[in-house]
Amino acid sequence: MKVKVFFCECGGNISENLDLKALKKELTSSGTEVFQHPFLCSPEGQAFFEARILPGEGVLVGACSPHLHGSIFKELAEKRRAQAFHLVALREEAAWLGKKGAYRRAIGLLKGALMALSYYRAPVLKKFPVTEGLLVVGGGIAGLSAALKAAEKGLPVYLVEREPFFGGKAVFLDRLYPRLECASCLVSPRLSALIQQENLHLFPLTHILEVKGRPGAYEVTLEEKPRYVDSERCHGCGDCLRVCPVNPPAITMDPPHPVPRIPIIHAARCLHFRGESCSRCKEVCARKAIRFEETPRLHRLRVGGIIVATGFRPYPVEKIPYYGYKRLPGVITLWDLERMFTRQENIYGFNGESPRRVAVIHCVGSRDRRHLPYCSEICCGLALKAGILLRERFSAEVYHFYLDLRLKTPEGEGLLRRAKEKGVRFIRGQVAEISEVPLNPEDEGRLTLLAEDTLGAGQRAWAVDLVILVPGFVPETGSEEVASLLRLCTDQFGFFSPREEKTAPVETLRKGIWIAGAASGPKDLSESVLSGEAAALEALLFLKNTSFRTETDWIEWEEQRCGRCWLCVEVCPFKALHIDLDRLKVEETLCCGCGLCASACPSGALRMKPFPREAQLQSLEVLFGET
Amino acid sequence: MKVLYYPGCSSEHLARDFYLSIEALASFLALELEPLPDWNCCGAREIEEAPEGVGLFLASRNLALASGKELLVTCSLCFHNLKRAQNILRENPIWRSRMAEVLKDEGLELSPDLPRILSLTEFLTRIDFSRFRSPHFRGFPVAVYYGCFLSRPYPTDLQALEKVLSAAGYPVIPTTLKTHCCGGHLPRTDSPVIKNLCRRLLFEARQKNASGLAVACPVCKLNLEIYGDPPFPVRYFTQYLGLALGISPSWLGIPEEE
């Protein structure tokens, strides 16, 4: 097979550090034809590339990383019916590492690749059918936006939520940033739409037990925990809520706009489940909807794709002892405050009276090596909003302690101006300590707050009545389980990683699984809706086709050689291998030909078909022989 | 239980009562506390004035003597110095080889297996004090105070004092300022800062109706006694433990007249 080599100069990125002329000379001397172009990815470059390939030839491209333009060159080569294709990342692996040694690295890589190409056998393109259904994990605002859009277009959608009610964290917000509009007025119509949508099947109180199958045909097992209230019979009158003798009540319908409008009995608190003979809620229910005998139910679904929208949660502030959360009265988080606002509860300070002076502390745990080494971006706006509301409701003195203010959208700046006009004060610096021990005896009965004022250049102390801690965000509990069930990649903080942050933000490395909302990083309401709908679009594009094509036939298994250690099954990050009656089975749609299993196999029983072990070894020999 | 133990210089003078109470506790609980043979000063604070490396040498010598074993350290400052020296020896190969060279002249070897340093507070949590409590003892509310060197930069268990004292029968009062600074070595500079620091620490204990403050560090106790205005009972936590076990106050270094 004749092999043609194409170099891309990448506008100097490659050619400035790497002597392409010398490379060309070296390769031509051994009989290989070499072409060079300033921008091989440009339309002109692509035409140049396409025109020079003849059917049956091998193609080697020396350009940037295969993640960037690899698929373009590959498709062009296939279009011209090239027999073999390979790409060497000359830019990342040779040129960008510095002028020194660039040539040595490049020639080794290229010769190794040429050696490997002589063994190359193209993978086989295969077609797989797609089931229409869509599973959405998480019933917060992102999940339900995705579910609504997909259902509207006619897809059967299964919306799974761990909590008894849908709506996630958005239903417990009082006002929204930056216009201070009523949150439930915006969120509740979407929630109501959930029930009306015909193609949408709701699974509250449910978690995923198992996910099997392949993209386009997943088999999912769900477990629905008992609610002890019959959803067919209950019409949500709420009579039962009033008769429960336990405090806090064992039967609740917590959110201000509950969807579904069916109460739940908390077995841990309910007297009936603790061996007493209470059945007041059952007696008062006119529809006879209370079912103490209910047990967990299993559901089995067949879906084509999965949207993960597990969301985030505020950082557990009690981990930072010097803020005194859960230890000192009058120290609450922003999320406690929002809940109090939505339930219209009274808010008291340290001494049990209405607060006269409030401190709002930004960046609690954020941008801190010991806690969250990142900025959560949306909390500054939330904090500012809370400060204004506290100023308006209690006409209290409000102090914001901030590190930097990050206010999104043009209206964010307007909100800051509005806060300043109302007399909210801003102090730039970190809070060192909150305690009930005063510095001056006359401040007894108030909280003492020590902080650095970096603009006033000094350490100062304040006596305050109420402290609002504004924590950063971490992934929701249980997202690790979802990640391991679906084998999704997460970043170092546990947020799901998209395939490409900027250009493919809702896709994952796994086909048929998408991410939406704050599961991939802190997001505010509008961004969550946006990414939910984007994920729905991706899901529609994939599921509305009856089939998809993918490259298969990467791996060959030699039964005689295999020692049955199944290291390959353990090592596969895509769950593409499984054992079937002592035989290894490869799930073709999941296998992407990474070759990890072949390199892990101690007896050499697995063979990477396009680049077998001999090719890899020989190319390594060439690579290290040159150096 | 046999334990290697580093008493530190303060046990000889400033914290004689701390030393006595530890010895009394050990004999009551049948702990074989074996002082580290031929131990020397950990370097304390004063050594910062000396040429670089002298302080590290003093601490390293103790570490070399105890290598491979558990070393119980009673004084907070000694704990800090030994921990710090251990960290330097682990992470800085240059200092490590220099120290190994100097120690070789003395016939000591700096083995790679450095001792495991234990603070007294953490060590005592291994003992279940509720089993040894005297039947005649009636607990009274005490507040606890750790000070700087048990909490940073090498944090120990900051619930240890609460655990042992409440097991011994004292109602322990949780305090906010338990890891705050007492002023340390500021008295030598005659700074007004220290008065405010100590006053605030004792204010909290008094405000929460504690009958005494349990401390773990000789310098903290000294400062709180000198600058406590009005005076407030401050004792080592080992003295409180000894009282709960029914040991006579004079054995614990508590003067008769109190």
Automatic annotation (TrEMBL), chain A:
Pfam families xrefs: FAD_oxidored, Fer4, Fer4_7
Gene3D superfamilies in the cross-refs: 3.30.70.20, FAD/NAD(P)-binding domain
Recorded family membership: Belongs to the HdrA family.
Single Gene Ontology MF annotation: metal ion binding
Protein name: CoB--CoM heterodisulfide reductase iron-sulfur subunit A family protein
InterPro entries cross-referenced by the UniProt entry: 4Fe4S_Fe-S-bd (IPR017896), 4Fe4S_Fe_S_CS (IPR017900), FAD/NAD-bd_sf (IPR036188), HdrA-like (IPR039650)
Keywords: 4Fe-4S, FAD, Flavoprotein, Iron, Iron-sulfur, Metal-binding, Oxidoreductase
4Fe-4S ferredoxin-type domain location: 225-256, 553-580, 582-611
From TrEMBL, chain B:
Keywords linked to the UniProt accession: Oxidoreductase
Domain Cysteine-rich: 3-83, 142-224
Highest taxon above the source species: Bacteria
One function term, GO molecular function aspect: oxidoreductase activity
One of the Pfam families matching this protein, by short name: CCG
Gene3D superfamilies named among the record's database cross-references: 1.20.1050.140
Record-given protein name: Cysteine-rich domain-containing protein
Keyword set includes Repressor: no
